[in-house]
Structure formats: C-alpha cells, structure tokens
UniProtKB/TrEMBL annotation:
S-adenosyl-L-methionine binds at residues 290, 319, 340, 388. The keyword S-adenosyl-L-methionine applies. This is 23S rRNA (Uracil(1939)-C(5))-methyltransferase RlmD. It is an enzyme of class 2 (transferase). Belongs to the class I-like SAM-binding methyltransferase superfamily. RNA M5U methyltransferase family. CDD domains: AdoMet_MTases. It comes from Pontibacillus salicampi. Keywords: Methyltransferase, S-adenosyl-L-methionine, Transferase.
Length: 467
C-alpha cells in the first residue's frame, strides 16, 4: 500500500481553522486530520496560512491574515515581538496564557506520569505580567550608519535587532542599557564582531534589586581594557545616581557564553542586594538569581506550605543554587542541608546564610545524585526533601536515594512539566503519593511554566510493606 500523501503542498496558501495550541504556543489546525502548526494562531480562529514545511505526519505554516479572530487575541505591546525570540505568547490574553500553562502541566501528568487523578491547580499569575525581569544581558552590534545598537538576537539567528525597550524587563534595566549604549557610542567604542572575533564591546548586562532599587551594570569586552574607562564610569554615575556597582568583565573567547573569567570592579560594590520575603541576598555579577522575584516569593511560599515545617525537621534541599529555598526553609526547620554542583554558588549560599544570621543551614558542593545516595548509606533520614532540578529533571540514582531515605514529604520544584511527571511516576512507584501540583507563572509572555508539587510517603504497614 502506498503511503498517504500529506494533503498540503509547500508554499501553498490555505484557509485553516485552529482547534488547539501546542506547549510552545503555536496554533494547531488540521487538514483532513493532518496537523499544521502555525505560530501566532489561536484556537477558534480562522486564518489564511502559507504552508512552509511539509513532513510525513505534520507540517508548519505562517500566519498571513486572520479572518476570524479569537476573543483572547490581544495586540502585542512590543514592537519587535515577531522578530525577537524572547517571548512567544504576547498575542494571547494573560488569562489564556495561565490556562494554557495549567493545561500543559495537566497533559504531562496524564500522558507521561499516568497521574490524571492528581489535582493541578490554576496557574498563579502576576497582577501585572510585564516588566518583571530583574536581569538583562544584551549583545551589542553595529548599525548601518556605523553607530552602536543593543538588542536581542533575531529568532534562530545571531542578527541583533535594534530595539528601544523590552516590555518584560524592569524599566531601570532598559534605561541603563540605552545609557551605556549611548555613552559607548559617544566614546567610539567598537562593537565586537562574532564573524572575525574582532572589536571591543560584546554585551551589556544589568541587574536590578527590585526591592532595594540597587543597580549593577556589567560591561563585557573582548579586550583586556575598556577604553575611556574613567569617563564612561563618570557618565554612568551622572545619569544614574542610584547605580551601586559598575563592573568590567573580559571575555576574549569565541563562545556563546556571555561572561569571561576576569572581572574588574570599576566603581562601587562588588555585589548588589535584593530581598525575597525577609531574606536578603548579595548578588555578584555571576551569581544565579531568580529573574522574577515576585513570583519566586509565590513559589517559595507554596513550597514552604507544602513542607509544613514545625521546627524539629531535618530538610535536604538538593539543587540549592545560592541557597534561596534553603534559607526560606531554615527559619522553620531544625536543620537544612543544601547541595549544589557549582562551587561559587555554594560560597554565595554560605555568605547569604551569614548575612541573614541563619546558623542551621549547611551547604555542600557536589552532584545531588552522588551526595544523597552517600548520605543515605551513612544513615541520614531527612524528614523533608526539596528538589529543584534543571530542565532534565532528577537523575535516577537521586530518585532511588530519596525513595530509600523515606522522608515524610517531598517538595518537587520543576521548570519542566514533562520531566516532573516522569519523576513523579518513579516516586509514586517507590511509595510516595502526589498530593497536588501548583503551576506558578515565573515567565509571563513566554511559554515556560514552573511548578511546585507535594508528595507524601504512603503509610507503612506493620510488616514494613507500603500500603
Ligand atoms: N533552588 C535554586 C536553584 C535552582 S536552579 C533557586 O531556586 O534559586 C538548579 C540548580 O541546580 C542550579 O544552581 C544548578 O547549578 C544546579 N545543578 C545542576 N545539576 C546539578 C547536580 N547534578 N547536582 C546538584 N546541583 C545541580
């Protein structure tokens, strides 16, 4: 039997009705059962679409003209929304974004974890889902007239878009980037060119402490020296009296990694301060720090509520970064043990514990998947284990150690619903019961969703078997 041919041809223009959304936010419409994925199309819409890619079982199209618009369609406020790769959901009402994220988590729980019965709550959104990011790292290039431009890369490329503002950035960051661009242009600082690895100015990084108003700017150059250093520093200080830290970082490698190994303080402090809840954090140029502190607070409050600490517990916080969750938990636990693979992050975690007079949190450098099994073999039996792994989820040896340690509760924080659902299945099979999952919108206007979930150990029978 010959294979059925796809019912559409490349470059053909068709009219399509959309019925669904992918997790990336693309509209899905079908032609005789053959799905076409179309960015910026919404369910319920009818539109003209140009078919641009035809594969055996599915194809891709681009949206030409919306004939019947969804009520959830909104005008994206960003001028470069469709060019820039940063946001995917600005054309969708915020309510729809939150619903879509909840559904994404539900689907993963159902299809991957076979956990359809577990409640997945409505996504906790932001009151104002704009200008939430506290950190920007922006590449610098040359305009056609020979000036400097600072902007994000065009989707799937390294062309720099000339842009004035990024609507999900803290306004201070936007204004600082623009000021540094203008000042660097005034002093004829050459932009770095990836093609021939020549030039000077590579990136401008700005971070703002949203609760303190502290601003740090990092100027990243290929060259060891930043030309006109003193004049540039003075002009930045004149423009931004509340700048706290002006830093120069040298990156002379051919790499996509933004910062290099050498960091010089040009003026001010070597870190800025921010607070989440009543905990203070010193943030150095290279420290990992959550980019949306408002929602981080919502996420941690939920984690804390799930942990339900009474003060006598030993808690393990695996993948602890600079100790953000650990320090939140420490105030209500007997002891917290944090594990993190990046040594400087552990140094920061220790400093942050001191800064907050927290004495019952200890931090260790290592792989969570190695350290927990070792602790388990040494007889450590934590009451609560918190994990917050990167996108690939937890390693199986870590999950096994967690199962062996038999904590009362596990709090699993995740930035990837698919690996979360996979790992919850393993923990369920190992004797835990997932109580609920709470999605939190840490990255409005983008397709990312963060979750916190709560597991309890099933009761042991008298013969030691799990019931
Ligand atoms: N809980 C922290 C950080 C979460 S990000 C916060 O909320 O701020 C995930 C962290 O896991 C990163 O800091 C990363 O460096 C760390 N990590 C990645 N792989 C790891 C591993 N195998 N073992 C321990 N930590 C790891």
């Amino acid at each position: 039997m010959s294979k059925p041919q796809p019912p559409v041809n490349k470059n053909e223009t068709i009219e399509l009705t959309f019925e669904d959304l992918t997790h990336e936010g693309n509209g899905v419409g079908k032609v005789n059962g053959y799905p076409l994925f179309v960015p910026y199309a919404l369910p319920g819409e009818k539109a003209q679409v140009k078919v641009v890619k035809v594969k055996k079982n599915f194809g891709f199209g681009i949206l030409l003209d919306v004939k019947e618009a969804s009520q959830e369609r909104v005008d994206p406020p960003c001028d470069v929304y469709e060019k820039c790769g940063g946001c995917q959901l600005q054309h969708m009402s915020y309510k729809m974004q939150l619903d879509m994220k909840q559904k994404q988590v539900k689907d993963a729980m159902h299809k991957i974890g076979h956990l359809s019965h577990v409640p997945v709550h409505p996504t906790i959104g932001m009151e104002d889902p704009w200008r939430y990011r506290n950190k920007v790292q922006i590449p610098v290039g040359e305009t056609e007239e020979g000036g400097l431009k600072a902007g994000f890369y065009r989707k799937r490329s390294h062309d720099i878009i000339d842009m004035d503002t990024c609507v999900i950035q803290d306004e201070h960051n936007d204004r600082m980037v623009e000021a540094v661009r203008r000042i660097a242009e005034k002093y004829s600082i050459e932009p770095y060119k990836e093609e021939n690895h020549r030039g000077v100015l590579r990136h401008i990084m700005v971070r703002t402490g949203q609760t303190t108003g502290d601003i740090m700017v990092v100027i990243i150059t290929k060259t060891k020296k930043l030309p006109h250093q003193e004049a540039i520093v003075q002009e930045i200080r004149d423009t931004f009296p509340n700048v706290k830290s002006i830093i120069h970082n040298v990156n002379n490698k051919r790499t996509n990694v933004i910062m290099g190994d050498q960091t010089n303080i040009l003026w001010g402090d070597k870190y800025i301060v921010d607070t989440i809840g009543d905990i203070r954090f010193n943030i150095s140029p290279k420290s990992f720090y959550q980019v949306n502190p408002t929602q981080t607070k919502a996420l941690y409050d939920q984690a804390l509520q799930y942990a339900n600490l009474k003060g006598h517990e030993t808690v393990v916080d695996a993948y602890c970064g600079i100790g953000t969750i650990s320090l939140f938990l420490a105030k209500q636990a007997k002891k917290v043990l944090g594990v993190e693979i990046v040594a400087p992050a552990v140094d920061d975690a220790k400093k942050n514990a001191k800064l907050n007079n927290i004495e019952n949190a200890e931090f260790y450098v290592g792989e969570a998947e190695s350290l927990l099994p070792w602790w388990q073999s040494q007889g450590l039996r934590p009451d609560v284990i918190v994990v917050d792994p990167p996108r690939k989820g937890c390693d199986e040896s870590l999950l096994n150690a967690m199962i062996q340690m038999q904590p009362e509760k596990i709090v699993y924080v995740s930035c990837n619903p698919s690996t979360l659902a996979r790992d919850l299945r393993i923990l369920e099979d190992g004797g835990f019961e997932t109580q609920e999952v709470q999605p939190v919108d840490m990255f409005p206007q983008t397709g990312h969703v963060e979750c916190v979930s709560h597991l309890r150990r099933k009761n042991n029978n008298s013969d030691g078997r799990l019931s």
